[in-house]
Design a protein that fits this description.
Layout (H helix, E strand, L loop, with lengths): L1 E7 L2 E7 L4 E3 H8 L7 H7 L2 H17 L23 E5 L3 H6 L10 E4 L5 E2 L5 E3 L6 E11 L15 E12 H6 L4 H5 L5 E3 L2 E3 L11 E6 L2 E7 L7 H9 L9 E3 L5 E4 L4 E6 L5 E7 L3
Parallel strand pairs: 4-14, 6-10, 7-17
Antiparallel strand pairs: 1-2, 1-11, 2-3, 4-5, 8-9, 8-14, 8-15, 9-10, 12-13, 12-16, 16-17
Length: 291
């Protein structure tokens, strides 16, 4: 199942993505007398995602494909971030050797290098990435996002899919010139407004045959800048979920942004995209606040 958040009548509402387009959860509730949460974060936090996905797989998908009204085509949809206020956003630094070379650093090989980002960084598909006045070199990074489905602690790697709501596309930004001044400035370099684009679709794990075979690409102005397979991560998604759950309790809707094949410098007028096999691309234009 694929979910998205779209802007309707001034509100941000969740919907199920079909071959015809997006059907709002509120419309599904009305037609089928359901009582599902109408926003994706609410669906995840309430534990309803599994129930909705079971309904979808047990005939709901075919019923939704028969909708002829109340379907919003993908090309006309106004997307919002999947949700705006997760409890935690983890970024994973230097999770591919190629990216480590960008910063003349050695990739961590014993434990992942993780950091937090605030929810005020969040934007969605089509929103502007804003290069801050404090930075002369900001970079963008396409990444695979992992979304937690439930409160959990001490998860073993073999059990990781039991606590996953799904996967998404992410573009993470860094004020690289600030970071180069001192590695202790990482939080500031990663935390400017608009520095975390998130969405447009959440894809449940049953839709992905093998997450390790997914190819992640950072794309700038329509050209692939860098790409790599998830299998080539130093610390794959199952390890990241297990590792962080043994540090702290993970909560429904927590996000792990798993690292980028390579970051690309961005400038005013650029268009940055995250391409992942089988996902709708995440696309964001760039503006420079100094101009």
């Amino acid at each position: 199942m694929r979910l998205a958040t779209i802007k309707l009548n001034g509100l941000e509402e969740g919907g199920i993505v079909t071959a015809k387009g997006i059907i709002p959860i509120n419309e599904i509730n009305r037609r089928y007398d359901m009582a599902w949460e109408a926003d994706i974060y609410g669906i995840i936090k309430s534990g309803q995602l599994e129930k909705i996905n079971n309904w979808y797989r047990d005939g709901g998908r075919e019923e939704l494909e028969e909708f002829n009204s109340d379907v919003i085509s993908i090309d006309k949809a106004q997307f919002a971030p999947l949700y705006r206020h997760p409890r935690k956003i983890f970024g994973i630094g230097l999770n591919y050797v190629d990216h480590a070379s960008d910063l003349n650093e050695k990739a961590p090989n014993r434990e992942p290098a993780s950091f937090f980002k605030p929810d005020t960084t969040i934007i969605g598909h089509g929103d502007n990435i804003k290069i801050p006045v404090q930075s002369e070199k900001t970079t963008a990074e396409a990444e695979l996002g992992v979304i937690l489905s439930k409160e959990c602690k001490n998860v073993e790697r073999k059990d990781w899919l039991n606590v996953i709501a799904g996967f998404t596309t992410i573009i993470d930004m860094t004020a690289e010139d600030i970071l180069r001044k001192n590695p202790r400035y990482l939080t500031r370099a990663k935390s400017f407004d608009t520095f975390f684009s998130f969405g447009p679709q959440l894809i449940t794990p049953d839709e992905i045959e093998d997450v390790l075979k997914l190819k992640v690409a950072t794309v700038i102005n329509g050209k692939i800048y860098a790409q790599n397979f998830v299998a080539n991560m130093n610390f794959p998604p199952d390890y990241l979920v297990s590792f962080h759950s043994k540090v702290m309790t993970m909560m429904p809707g927590d996000i792990i942004s798993t690292g980028t094949p390579r970051a690309t410098p961005i400038k005013h007028g650029d268009v940055v995209e995250c391409w992942i096999d089988g996902f709708q691309p995440l696309v964001n234009p760039v503006i420079d606040k100094k101009l």
